[in-house]
Design goal:
Radius of gyration: 23 Å
Number of domains: 3
Strand order of the largest sheet: 18-17-16-20-21
Shape: globular
Structural class: alpha+beta
């Protein structure tokens, strides 16, 4: 499935937390990028950064397009962090390295560092409160004419799982071709990536097909191919990350693997027992507290739960409560005018709304539009012919209802029965139609 990611700026494109990403700089020319978890992908402009669509899978979601809030699943916090030292050696690179950049998370925020390469060596030091997946990137010297060397992610970037202590990173022939010593957690991470490879190899030709169908605007075959990729990715997630966290709860990589397995749309019934089975060391990592908060929210908004009450103003600044819609089937739809994937999905919602609006069905749109941009919100409602109830506090990703429901990606939705019970989550397109056909048969 696809989602948009809100990405913190660090001079190159990056996305926070899952395994497969799809950048789409325009609708006709999608480009898939396979990178390790917590990747950083180069942007060439602010416009392109806004256009990046990340391809993300987890076992709970079906086909859809999502715009993801950058709430890192591998958030690293620290109270009394321990020191780490990363010393690098570059050998046999065809281009002349000038600077190396390091990025990781600590104290709940992104840390960025850079160092000059001297005699083929570089050095970083810092403090972390738990093992952290870091990204390193090289910048080469310009040629004689002053022309900068464009970055190629497969050649010029690498992932290193850092931990307290001395870590040695050696790159031979290519900056991305690294050998890491001194990080036991990186060794386990490399094993996970090796286990992923057969699944990635199976997906690659399908991704190429998807790209061709996208260029041809063949949506039917796009969706079929997407479903095939989803199935492989689901299998990979279960057999790689699921198996790892179940079999290695004491591994220092356990929490990371669980987050990868859980994804951002957490199935609390499935994930909570695994979290509780993690070693005490994993559960005491600074980022475990944040993950536990997300898990607690998921427990309150899962299928079978009564949707939490909320009140927010509509387009005329009149308060609308969720409970005021009791007695009807309600699709609570999280979206925004700036969210391209949301706008792509809107015709599907319009279709089912028009079909069932006279059969006790309603839609409540919750918009994550930006402060001061009410006109854009209103225009999108008009342009897309969204003839249902709309609310927003115009706080962007800080929308109070979105935070209450743990929404970190849009579009997302919840289908409620007349009693306010959640009977489905994140269903769209044909799946939404089938569910409503089942409800109203």
């Amino acid at each position: 499935m696809l989602f948009y990611h809100k990405i913190p700026v660090f001079s190159f494109k990056r996305a926070c937390n899952q395994r497969r990403y799809k950048t789409r700089l325009n609708a006709e020319n999608p480009v898939f990028v396979t990178v390790p978890a917590c990747p950083f992908i180069l942007f060439q402009s602010a416009e392109n950064r806004k256009a990046v669509i990340c391809r993300f899978k987890n076992q709970h979601m079906k086909y859809g397009i999502f715009f993801l809030l950058c709430l890192p699943l591998l958030a690293i916090g620290q109270d009394n962090g321990k020191s780490f030292r990363v010393s690098g050696k570059l050998t046999g690179l065809k281009l002349q390295p000038e600077w190396v950049f390091l990025q990781y998370q600590a104290e709940g925020s992104w840390k960025t560092d850079s160092t000059e390469v001297k005699e083929g060596k570089y050095l970083f030091t810092g403090k972390i409160g738990e093992p952290a997946l870091a990204r390193i990137r090289v910048r080469y010297k310009a040629d004689e004419k002053g022309t900068k060397v464009p970055m190629v992610s497969s050649r010029d970037m690498a992932a290193v799982f850092i931990q307290p202590g001395n870590i040695k990173v050696e790159a031979v022939d290519s900056f991305s071709n690294i050998r890491v010593k001194g990080s036991a957690v990186h060794k386990e991470y490399s094993r996970l990536k090796a286990e992923e490879k057969p699944y990635e190899d199976r997906m690659k030709p399908l991704i190429d097909q998807y790209r061709e169908f996208a260029k041809a605007k063949d949506q039917a075959n796009q969706q079929k191919t997407e479903e095939q990729i989803d199935a492989i990715d689901k299998e990979k997630n279960e057999k790689v990350y699921g198996a790892f966290v179940k079999n290695n709860p004491s591994s220092p990589l356990g929490l990371y693997a669980l987050k990868q397995y859980a994804g951002w749309d957490i199935d609390a019934d499935k994930i909570e027992p695994l979290f509780n089975n993690l070693s005490e060391a994993n559960r005491n990592y600074p980022s475990a507290a944040e993950f536990k908060e997300s898990l607690d929210v998921a427990k309150k908004t899962g299928i079978g739960k009564i949707a939490p009450e909320f009140v927010q103003n509509d387009t005329l600044d009149r308060p609308v409560s969720l409970s005021s819609l009791r007695g009807r089937y309600v699709l609570v739809d999280f979206w925004a005018s700036w969210c391209g994937p949301c706008r792509v999905e809107n015709p599907n919602v319009v279709k089912v709304f028009n079909r069932y609006k006279d059969r006790n069905f309603h839609v409540l749109g919750v918009s994550l539009d930006r402060p001061g941009q009410k006109e854009k919100w209103m225009k999108a409602i008009h342009d897309d012919k969204l003839e249902w109830t709309h609310v927003s506090d115009l706080k962007f990703w800080d929308n109070e209802v979105a935070k209450q429901y743990g929404i970190r990606a849009i579009p997302q939705n919840l289908l409620l029965d007349p009693n306010g019970k959640i009977i489905a989550r994140n269903i769209r397109g044909e799946e939404l139609e089938r569910k409503l056909e089942e409800v109203f048969k």
